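Supplementary notes for students who missed Thursday's class. We covered one full example, reproduced here. Read the sequence, then the structure, then the short commentary at the end.
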Amino acid sequence: MPSLKDLRNRIASVKATQKITKAMQMVAAAKLRRAQMAAESARPYAERMERLLANLGASMPDAATEELPLLRGTGRDQVHLLVVATGERGLAGAFNSSIARLARDHANRLLAEGKEVKILCVGRKGADILRRQFPRHITEVVDLRGVRQVGYGEAEAIARKVLDMFEAGQFDVATLYFSTFRSVISQVPTATQLIPAQLAQSGAEAGAAPAAVYEYEPEESEILADLLPSNITFQIFRALLENQASFYGAQMSAMDNATRNAGEMINALTLNYNRTRQAMITTELIEIIAGAEAL
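Structure (token representation):
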């Protein structure tokens, strides 16, 4: 049975931990609002970009797509690049592990089919998780620990790495993994194919009302040649923004749970402390009374 001093030390230790988790929860809540606004502001642009690319792709003949490697791809499906974007820090519940689990399951399916897998990790935590099972498949780790606020420049640098690898013929298909922010208690692991680009169905193809007919200047192929690399950069930028909001939401929820668990532990330890102290007092009284009766 622990002594009263041990119980007092444990109670003090848990109270100190509770103060830390409460402070981390408040910091995450303060940062979440700005990160959530940034992620939500990027969504309309991304949706509009998808519709524009879909309209351009639908108006092009199949022969013209041969001149656009980012749209057509290499024509093979043998080497896959998995761009796994996670956080640089932990204490955020299952945020990092859920993204890594989605990428790991996809990698296992590809390897079972005899495909070659390469992994580009954006974030130290995802690299630490995936390195346990795929140490030879991780080609590079992008460290963002020194970046206080993720910006378009970081996404552009990552996109340039992906495009350089594609131009060098190092992979056939690239897929981006991140977490889409829904709410403080809901972050959805998401996979998006970057190369070859997956164009959404245009309105006419989807069964909606016929869209207006546009004449493009310059030609559609020239516009797509400029937009496709920019789209890859923006998709990565959007993933980083979604990840940032998801991280703060997950951390806020995790620290709130940790604070409440610490409170429950303090109550249990305090009850144990009071019972132990009462038992010791009762034992001392019995010994005193028994000694007095013996005299």
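Commentary. The CA atoms of residues 179 and 189 lie 4 Å apart. Confidence is low (pLDDT under 50) at residues 202-206. If anything here is unclear, bring it to office hours.
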